[in-house]
Design brief:
By secondary structure, the protein is an alpha+beta fold. The chain is built from 13 helices and 46 strands. It is 19% helix and 52% strand. The strands form two sheets. It has a 44-stranded mixed beta sheet that branches. The relative contact order is 0.04.
């Protein structure tokens, strides 16, 4: 007994030691393994703080627990700005013995707390979740694929969010409050997998239409897993969507690397109408449990076939509602006689081959009947045969179906039929009539009701030809907070409409946008006008505005506009204008944009073409004045094309680039008293800006800043917003060297010597290149040439001059003064090349030229012609070696050649040549010519490499496009074959009386709308 107790005590001590020591023993090892696996197997940016990794045995024994906080996975390339997954708390259970052995680590469990996962699929089909390198691909690279083994037995997700956005379909899903648990032994090849999933809010949208809105989900699913055959068979399962329960039967298989096979049927587990009623948006609320409902539902369907790049499984749904009714206990009326018979069938799986047949739809909203039916065959082209007829008293409808905070009155009538082909060139034969009498709509969310709504109209197409569609709204009238709005509209010939319309009244934009919200935008103010227009869009497109009758007046007061793209907002305090068919005359317009004020007048033309014909420009000639304008507020992100301004305060520095609007052809004659651009303050800015094709052309633009006068002409191009370009000519008068060095990063990088220069200069310089996100030139792209007219310059305490003076024993070179000297310069491939120039310092004659690089490296050549007697003995000895003249002191003057390298703060100066001839200009000129030639050659090679890269990228894009085209051609071929087989099958069934028996449907009730 004593030995047993002693052994147990030793075991407990060792266990406690292991529990305490585990974090220290395995933390670094597991982190190194995770980093290695991420680097080799994950094509994404994985971000986490090493301090947020913890290892424990206390809470996970006998497994080892690996806990990672705040892990973020961000995609690459097209998804480089998107977070694929944010995992605040990831807990992984590892088999302890496998960690100790270290050969292969077995993952036993995974738990995620509050994960946020956003899955995206682009139109091209590329998915952001495709980030893992397969085992075979890793093995082909010689990477270890056996370090980690998935032997999972359980997993858990707590309060997660899953977003799915597939733009290739297009389909969106947003699941919030996701809780999921699952069990299954993946160490075995045949086992049962069980799971439970609950979702608090599920929203699903297809092609812009919400089919599920904030629905609840509870799913218990059991699958028989056969990993050898890659076959997964549904066993007992039940899924509950709101109060509607249904189940699956069948199997999903992965027979090869490209195909997924489905053979699944589903059906409703209950047949009460109340259950399916809970799927209707807005019905599932606190009062739903008290709703009285009756009627029967039959719901079933299938999903069968192969999914791969070319095919999708076939599917079908059958839904029948018989004698349905529901009534809210607090409301006096009920919805009754609800009868629906719907069949959706598409055995081929190709979306274009779908058939939808709603042979019967009827309900009575109190005493108000609604009838309809529709049959659809295919999508492009679409064969349609349907009708809808309703005559509803809106006040009675609300007595049947509650809508919180909404009041409606009036009689609404619609009777529409459509039969024929719908495509780009055809439409069904249509006869539709709509009418509303004494309408009234009021919501608690909006400040005022829309009253006295009276309108009637028809839509008629008697031939099925698109251009034979006639829309006629002979009158409409409404009151918005007591102010009338009246008008009429007649139009036909859809491809090139012939129209005749007029509208008269005052609109309070604040109230109208609360009634009809504009997503992401806020608009307020009042606009009144009297507008009439009649004509043919063919004349508008061709610019024959004389054939269009348009006239009217518009006045606006205190109109404001704010959006995500324009967070600083625009406020038009007052504006008046008149217009005709050709142009708008802006008589006056006053307002602010953020902290910037403006006033404008002039003319705007081609507004009809701009509004109604995509790609036509808005033309105009305006005079614009401003007292204060902050350019920084109008910067946009070059990737998202959204404003970088916050809308709270005017930014003091530039962030983003200024975007030139598309389809604007404007001449702006501008005068601005004060301009803020980056951290510069400009005054008295005047000139003409021409905007066309996303290019702003500056003409005679002048302004004052830094105590100097600036003039510029040229262009700024944002056709490629990520790489905006400029080509400007500058004419600057009386600019101080120190001011230029402090204000412009271009001067700091290319003329670092300016840091030690006091004085004033003029320049006439032409420069081109690319703008950065700070609206300052990207130095590596600069090219240019021009002249610097140095009016006065003094160079004091320069390390470079100190070395030159020391080397040449000429102390007067420690400080230089230059007056009225013209220097020619050129910028090539981001390098400033200073062409040789002469100047004198006492009886010394100097020639200087060379280059500055972006890295701050200087490479200059100097020649100094000096009296021989001024040179020291040590230098005379060196010159004797360089010239071969023994009696240097016997000569009158000598020319020294110097190389100046390094950088401005740490220069290197070397004596490279000596000559008795006064040939300094020739020495410097030859060297600078060589440097210029080298720079031009380097630029040519860079452009050639860039062109080769662009051609290669274009070739890859063209190859991908061709592969996608081939895929679409194959799909179309298979789709046509499937449709033909289906048609032949239907014909044979009709000939021999075979085929499936149709689902019986109840007889349609009589058309009660006539009552």
């Amino acid at each position: 007994m004593r030995k047993i107790l002693l052994g147990f005590l030793v075991f407990v001590v060792l266990l406690v030691v292991a529990l305490v020591a585990a974090p220290f023993l395995f933390k670094d090892k597991l982190r190194a393994l995770a980093d290695k696996q991420i680097a080799q197997r994950v094509r994404a940016k994985v971000q986490y703080n090493p301090a947020d990794i913890d290892v424990t045995l206390l809470s996970t024994f006998p497994n080892l627990g690996l806990d990672i906080k705040n892990l973020r996975v961000i995609g690459l390339d097209s998804f480089s700005r998107d977070t694929l997954a944010y995992l605040p708390d990831l807990r992984v259970g590892l088999d302890l013995m496998s960690v100790i052995k270290g050969q292969q680590i077995d993952v036993k469990s995974v738990a995620l707390d509050q994960p946020d996962i956003a899955i995206e699929v682009l139109k091209s089909g590329r998915a952001n979740w495709d980030i893992m390198l397969s085992n075979s691909a890793a093995a082909s690279k010689g990477q270890d694929t056996s370090s980690v083994n998935l032997a999972i037995q359980g997993w858990k997700i707590t309060n997660g969010r899953l977003r799915y956005d597939d733009r290739s379909i297009p389909f969106r899903m947003d699941a919030r409050g996701v809780n999921h648990t699952g069990k299954g032994d993946f160490a075995k090849n045949i086992f049962d997998l069980t799971s439970n999933t609950t979702i608090n809010k599920l929203t699903a949208t297809y092609n812009g239409i919400d089919y599920l809105t904030n629905k609840q989900v509870n799913a218990d699913v059991a699958l028989a897993m056969d990993l050898n055959k890659h076959l997964y068979t549904f066993k007992e399962n039940q899924v509950k969507l709101n109060d509607f329960p249904f189940s699956f039967a069948g199997a999903i298989g992965l027979p090869n690397a490209t195909d997924i096979t489905y053979d699944i049927t589903f059906k409703a587990l209950q047949t009460d109408f109340k259950n399916i009623l809970s799927l209707v948006p807005g019905v599932f609320n606190a009062q739903f449990k008290d709703v009285a409902a009756s009627g029967q539902v039959a719901f079933s369907g299938y999903y069968k076939g192969v999914q791969n790049k070319l095919r999708m499984p076939g599917y079908g749904v059958n839904l029948t509602v018989t004698n349905g009714r529901f009534k809210y206990p607090q409301l006096p009326q009920e919805a009754k006689n609800i009868n629906v018979a719907m069949v959706v069938d598409n055995p081929s799986g190709f979306t274009n081959n779908v058939k939808v047949n709603i042979s019967n739809f009827h309900l009575d909203l109190g005493t108000n009947p609604v009838d309809g039916n529709v049959a659809i065959d295919g999508l492009n082209p679409m064969q349609v045969d349907g009708r809808v007829k309703a005559n509803v008293n809106l006040a009675e409808a609300l007595k049947v179906y509650p809508v919180a905070g909404l009041t409606m009155r009036g009689q609404f009538f619609v009777d529409a039929t459509g039969k024929g082909t719908y495509s780009k060139t055809q439409m069904p034969v249509v006869n539709a009539a709509i009418k509303m009498t004494n309408g009234y709509v009021k919501s608690d969310k909006f400040p005022a009701p829309i009253e006295d709504i009276n309108l009637s109209g028809t839509v008629v197409n008697a031939t099925g030809q698109v251009n034979d569609t006639y829309v006629n709204l002979p009158q409409f009238h409404m009151l918005l907070e007591g102010e009338p709005l009246d008008g009429r509209l007649a139009a036909h010939n859809i491809n090139s409409p012939v129209f005749d319309a007029d509208v008269k009244g005052t609109v309070d934009l604040t109230k109208i946008t609360r009634i009809f919200p504009l997503q992401g935008m806020t608009v307020t103010g009042r606009v009144s006008g009297n507008i009439a227009a009649a004509g043919n869009m063919a004349d508008v497109n061709a610019g024959r505005y004389q054939n269009v009758k348009a006239s009217g007046t518009v006045q606006a007061k205190n109109v404001t506009y704010q959006s995500k793209e324009l967070p600083q907002g625009v406020n038009i305090s007052s504006a008046t204008g008149t217009f005709n068919n050709n142009q708008i005359v802006v008589q006056s317009l006053n307002g602010t944009a953020g902290t910037s004020d403006f006033a404008a007048s002039g003319t705007v033309s081609n507004y009809l073409g701009y509004l109604f014909t995509p790609g036509q420009p808005l033309r105009g000639n305006l005079t614009v004045n401003s007292h204060n304008f902050n350019v920084n507020e109008f910067m946009v992100d070059p990737v998202s094309n959204k404003s970088t301004a916050t809308g709270k305060a005017a930014p003091t520095q530039a962030s983003g680039v200024v975007a030139i609007p598309k389809f604007f052809d404007l001449v702006l004659n501008s005068k601005v008293d004060n301009v803020t651009y980056d951290n510069l303050k400009l005054t008295n800015a005047t000139g003409t800006v021409t905007v066309n094709n996303q290019i702003a052309t500056l003409k005679n633009l002048t302004f004052n800043t830094l105590g100097a006068t600036f003039g510029t002409t040229g262009s700024y191009n944002t056709q490629n917003l990520a790489h905006p370009k400029f080509d400007l000519g500058l004419n600057i008068k009386n600019l101080n060297f120190q001011s230029a060095f402090q204000a412009f990063n271009t001067v700091k990088a290319l003329v670092p010597l300016a840091a030690a220069v006091q004085g004033v200069f003029n320049t006439t310089f032409s420069a081109s290149g690319e703008m950065g996100q700070d609206m300052l030139p990207k130095l590596s792209t600069l090219s240019g040439n021009g002249v610097f007219d140095i009016l006065k310059a003094s160079v004091l305490q320069s390390p470079t001059l100190s070395q030159i003076a020391s080397l040449t024993t000429l102390p007067e070179l420690k400080n230089l003064s230059i007056i009225n000297k013209v220097v020619n310069a050129q910028i090539v491939d981001g390098k400033l090349i200073v062409k040789p120039f002469d100047f004198a310092v006492g009886d010394l004659k100097l020639t200087l030229g060379g280059t500055n690089s972006l890295a701050g490296i200087v490479d200059y050549v100097a020649a100094i012609n000096a009296p021989t007697g001024k040179l020291g003995n040590a230098l005379n000895s060196k010159l004797t070696q360089l010239t071969g003249v023994q009696n240097i002191q016997g000569t009158d003057r000598v020319t020294l050649g110097l190389d100046i390298g390094g950088n401005i703060s740490s220069p290197t100066v070397k004596l490279t040549s000596g000559s008795l001839k006064d040939q300094g200009k020739a020495i410097v000129t030859n060297v600078v010519k060589t440097k210029l030639t080298d720079a031009l050659l380097g630029l040519a090679n860079k452009n050639r490499a860039k062109g080769d890269s662009t051609q290669k990228a274009t070739a890859v894009t063209q190859q991908n496009a061709q592969e996608q085209l081939n895929l679409e051609i194959q799909k179309k071929k298979l789709e046509a074959e499937a449709k033909a087989k289906q048609a032949i099958g239907n014909g044979l069934n009709s000939l021999f009386g075979g085929g499936r028996k149709a689902t019986p449907t109840p007889p349609a009730p009589a058309d009660t709308t006539k009552k």
